[in-house]
Amino acid sequence: MVVEDGGPTAPSGPGSLIQVPAAPTNADGDLVIANYLPGVAATSLKTVMNWGRANSLWYMLFGLACCAIEGLMAGGAARWDYDRFGMFFRSSPRQSDLMFVAGTVTEKMAPRIRTIYEQMSEPRYVIAVGACASSGGPFKDSYAVVPGVDKIIPVDIYVPGCPPRPEALYYGAIKLQEKIMKEKWHKKQQAKAGARA
Amino acid sequence: MSMEEVVSHAKETAEKVTAQFPEAEVTASDDGWVKVKVQAGRWLDLATFLKESSGFDYMFYITAVDWKDHFTVVGTVRSMTTGVWAEFRTDVTEQGGDHPWPALASVTGVWPGANWMEREVYDLFGIDFTGHPDLRRIMTPEGFVGHPLRKNFTDVRTDRPRLVPHR
Hints:
Number of strands of chain B: 7
Distance between the termini of chain A: 56 Å
Largest sheet of chain A: 5 strands, parallel
Order of helices and strands of chain A: HHEHEEHEHEHH
Distance between the termini of chain B: 67 Å
Shape of chain B: elongated
Helix content of chain A: 25-40%
Strand order of the largest sheet of chain B: 1-2-5-4-3
CATH topology of chain B: Beta Polymerase, domain 2
Helix content of chain B: 25-40%
Largest interface: A-B, 14 and 13 residues
CATH topology of the largest domain in chain A: Rossmann fold
CATH architecture of the largest domain in chain A: 3-Layer(aba) Sandwich
Number of helices of chain A: 7
Strand content of chain B: 15-25%
CATH class of the largest domain in chain A: Alpha Beta
Structural class of chain B: alpha/beta
Oligomer: heterodimer
Structural class of chain A: alpha/beta
Number of strands of chain A: 5
Radius of gyration of chain A: 24 Å
Strand content of chain A: 5-15%
Radius of gyration of chain B: 19 Å
Largest sheet of chain B: 5 strands, mixed
């Protein structure tokens, strides 16, 4: 049979213009839709959602000290450039998925960091940039310093260094992308729904 | 203005201060500084004299030193017309009774720029500036206990748990 108008019906079979592979399965015997219908990929909704989230991380920078200059200003500028990872700077926590906490967290700033974190919409992620934000760094014993921002907000990735190079921050960002790709958000939603019910 | 003129102005200022405050230790150095040490009771008189009679119109800073048995409060001012620096200091001690803090007269009325600096010294050293219009803590967070730059300061914060479990 010959398709005359190229309509939506795509017949197959012997003599068709469209050549359908004989066995649309892989070595394990699973059906591979990409082989059956070219240009179509089959995956789970979880993977698609995680893929979208991991590759459009809009970040808010919470620059507190010298790490902000090295990791966020230099790292965000043209020489290193976060845009390559689909990461764009947003100056509002409402539009951000990711917050970089860069620098020494003082006791006076800690409630403000907590407020900004709570203003971000879920899913939200935090990267602690440098030794100070990770653990207090050299100011750990100071009366004015919170020994690590993880005493205030949950942290996903710790990037060591004093300050870390922009490359180290990119490694942390890529690690966060890998973490997001493994995220089982549907189970989290189910758990939340179960908790509410 | 040449350095020689600044030094001569400094020596002239030192002579004027010595004449007015005979009990004070006054030195004029070769780099244009006048250094005065007075008793705590004449602190405000000295500040007023420096401002009104010697033209020290620029308040640079006020800070303090903890010597364990007493505190030294140090102020630095500059004359923007002659270029002379003046450093004036005094010793204060903790008082007993119902007012245990060391107290000193505030110079905010002489130099308004001393307002936040005296608040800082109050916050970090616990020195009470009497006559200050708004003596509140300026640097430490709300509810802070103690004065952290004192030698006998101990941190009373309780340890907070990490929000991220160890793996």
